[in-house]
Amino acid sequence: MPRYLRNLIIALVVIAVLIGLDFVFQGRMLNPYFVRILMLSGIAITLAVSLNLINGFTGQFSIGHAGFMAVGAYSSAYFSVNYGVNLANSLGGGKVGWVVALLVSTLIGAFFAGLAGLAVGIPSLRLRGDYLAIVTLGFGQIIVVFLNNIEAVGGARGYSGIPIVKSFFWIFLVAVLTIVIVYNIVNSAFGRALISIREDELAAEAMGVNTTRYKVMAFVISSALAGAGGVLLAHFDGYLNPKSFEFIKSFEILIMIILGGLGSIVGSVLGAIVLTVLPEALRGFAEYRMVIYSLLLIILMITRPQGLLGSTGPLKAWRKRRKLTAENAGGGPAAAPTSPSTVATQPERPAPGGENLR
Fold first, then answer.
1. Domain residue spans in the chain?
2. Cβ-Cβ contacts under 8 Å for 117 (sequence gap 6 or more)
3. Cβ-Cβ contacts under 8 Å for 193 (sequence gap 6 or more)
4. Do the Cβ atoms of 153 and 159 come closer than 8 Å?
5. DSSP-derived 3-state class of residue 159
6. What residues have CB less than 8 Å from 172, skipping those under 6 apart?
7. Confidence of residue 351 (pLDDT cuts 50, 70, 90)
8. Calpha distance 276→253 (Å, rounded)
């Protein structure tokens, strides 16, 4: 089967599954509280996987992800409030109209977040390590200060009146697209350049890799995907507040990818789900909830600093064992000759002049 046809079939199956699950959740067959937690997990997956592209695969330490998320959320919310409703009504006001309006809103949010990532990335990604972290943290705080003083988007009061679109299909479609985009980037020549920067930036430069260019491109893609996550959050409750995007939010997303394992897409998904569900699961211990939550994270970082699915995680170890088993069974690189007779019976190779050296 051709590769493009196989990918098309997989895409159609995923869309069909998401539509079916959306029908189940919209029909209130489950507790709305659990549905809400599940949808928030989908938004967290988008944010965690997008941050892992720059922190996990490129090896840069960015802690301003909430700032790019805020740019995407507020720009899309402003469009939806002032133009999105009219756009949906001009298309009939039905489900199709709102889907088109939300699609345009998502593209606008991702575009402006990517533009912000470009504006920050060009001057700052020449820096390394702690210096880059300070710059991105400062950018996130600058965004919060700006939002507190822009009356067009509510200022410190927050921005209300945003059309609410609580769609399981839309949230997890964006999450799946984020995973697919990051996966394809990592497994391409572009991704190999990013990983070389992570492993040894000086060696990558010596081999001709334009490290600044690749880091800026990764930063822009990561920021645009974070903006898409902000769009989902803006239309989830219909209200935005600048306090929701302070540095604590950036650290929360950072903890997700550290918990799951830097450089692991599956780990990012797992970390996002765990850190969204765990605080709610501990809500019954209201007095000690945050203490237990913090202790669990500390214990994990002490016992497994590489994260749940980090470089030596169980999934990668299983894949390594499976590869070695396949090579031994199929006579691959791991299957060396075991008897002297095998070597002795090999045909003699003639010399370049046609004469036998033996």
1. 31-246
2. 68, 219, 220, 222, 223, 224
3. 204, 209, 214
4. yes
5. strand
6. 18, 21, 42
7. very low
8. 10
Contact criterion met (CB below 8 Å) for 151 and 226:
no
Residue 132: predicted pLDDT = 81
Count the residues in the chain: 358
Amino acid at 36: R
What the block records as the tokens of 270 is 């797992």
CA nearest to 50, candidates 306, 231, 270, 229:
229
Residue 87 CB: number of other CB atoms within 10 A?
A: 17
pLDDT digits (tens, 9 = 90+) for 43-95: 999 999 999 999 889 888 888 899 999 999 999 999 988 888 788 878 776 77
Provide the sign of the torsion angle of the four alpha carbons 211, 128, 69, 186, taken in this order: positive
Residue 119's CB is within 10 A of a number of other CB atoms, namely 13
Backbone φ, ψ for residue 174 (5° rounding): -65, -40
Question: Is 66:243 a contact under the CB 8 Å cutoff?
Answer: no
- Please report where in the chains the tokens 């720009």 appear, as a residue: 75
